[in-house]
Write a sequence for this structure.
């Protein structure tokens, strides 16, 4: 299911192979976010051109729109969106707690009003597993409560108790479906910014037993160094022979810090969301292509990038597209960013294989 093929001699960085129903993923890997069955502004063909192995979908959004009946009638999420590679679906917990209104948390589950039309809903951890089964997810996530920063410790303790209880129930529900699905189920480490709670969360999840383990509740407003500390306080208690997934982590420099701790998987909206707002990520640093200084700059977004955007279009032209609100501008920027992210992770994998991870980190 998950096999480590290479290890770095000086850090916990590793290369692994993760088997899923729709193919094998080589890790470390970045997953573009396809919240509503699409990675915004990009086609599936463009994602494959970038080398994307797996994308992320969101159970909350897909449950509300287009609705499970539509996706089931289409034969599942893969057929609905014409994507034949692996899909990880987030449980929707973060969206329920951040987008939905009149939200109430109970031991049984969560009641909330849709942020779209105000309709009332109630979902249990078991419901979330069933919905992801109906979607046909390759990797399912358990329902968890994601707390914002800062959070008082007593609040974090109560939340952790609830989240890990939901994880147990999710595992039991998943086990009942195992005769019908070869999907994987990941647990999610929580505990806010308290190392002892992170340890407790990880150890209890390992006792329950999952196919992989995610590190949640990070990048929610805490300082960067505290984020790294909590990541390390989580991953060091997880089994080495299981994949480790840092949820919502997505600045290029973060990858190196996380991978040297032993993290294998990432997702984030940064390359597409920031790309649509004019930020391009390159080996040379971030380029805000809307800026006036690029009005006559005929260089590509990155002279060290071999993507189709950098081979064919100048900063000057892309800036013009943004300033005239032409949709091609945000598409080109998004395409370049996803290509850069996915191929940065590919470079990291190759560096680990060749014993050059630390060198690549220094160069970057």
């Amino acid at each position: 299911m998950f096999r480590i093929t290479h290890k770095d001699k000086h850090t916990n960085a590793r290369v692994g192979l993760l088997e899923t129903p729709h193919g094998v993923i080589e890790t470390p890997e970045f997953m573009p976010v396809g919240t509503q069955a699409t990675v915004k502004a990009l086609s599936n063909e463009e994602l494959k051109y970038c080398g994307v192995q797996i994308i992320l979908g969101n159970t909350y959004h897909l449950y509300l729109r287009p609705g499970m009946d539509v996706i089931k009638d289409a034969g599942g999420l893969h057929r609905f969106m014409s994507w034949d590679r692996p899909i990880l679906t987030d449980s929707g917990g973060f969206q329920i707690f951040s987008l939905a209104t009149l939200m109430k948390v109970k031991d049984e589950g969560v009641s909330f009003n849709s942020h779209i039309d105000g309709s009332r809903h109630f979902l249990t951890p078991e419901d979330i597993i069933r919905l992801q089964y109906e979607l046909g997810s390759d990797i399912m996530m358990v329902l968890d409560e994601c707390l914002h920063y800062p959070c008082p410790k007593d609040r974090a303790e109560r939340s952790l108790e609830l989240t890990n209880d939901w994880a147990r129930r999710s595992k039991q529900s998943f086990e009942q479906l195992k005769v019908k699905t070869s999907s994987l189920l990941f647990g999610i480490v929580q505990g806010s910014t308290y190392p002892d709670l992170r340890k407790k969360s990880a150890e209890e999840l390992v006792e329950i037993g999952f196919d992989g383990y995610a590190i949640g509740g990070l990048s929610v407003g805490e300082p960067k160094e505290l984020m790294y500390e909590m990541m390390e306080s989580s991953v060091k208690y997880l089994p080495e022979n299981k994949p480790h997934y840092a949820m919502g982590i997505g600045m290029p420099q973060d990858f190196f810090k996380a991978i040297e701790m032993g993290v294998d998987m990432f997702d984030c909206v940064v390359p597409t969301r920031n790309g649509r707002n004019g930020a391009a990520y390159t080996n040379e640093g971030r380029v805000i292509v809307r800026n006036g200084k690029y009005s006559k700059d005929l260089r590509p977004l990155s002279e060290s990038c071999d993507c189709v955007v950098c081979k064919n279009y100048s900063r000057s032209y892309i800036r013009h597209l943004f300033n005239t609100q032409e949709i091609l501008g945000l598409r080109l920027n998004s395409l370049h960013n996803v290509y850069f992210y996915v191929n940065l992770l590919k470079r990291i994998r190759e560096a680990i294989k060749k014993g050059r991870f630390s060198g690549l980190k220094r160069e970057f």
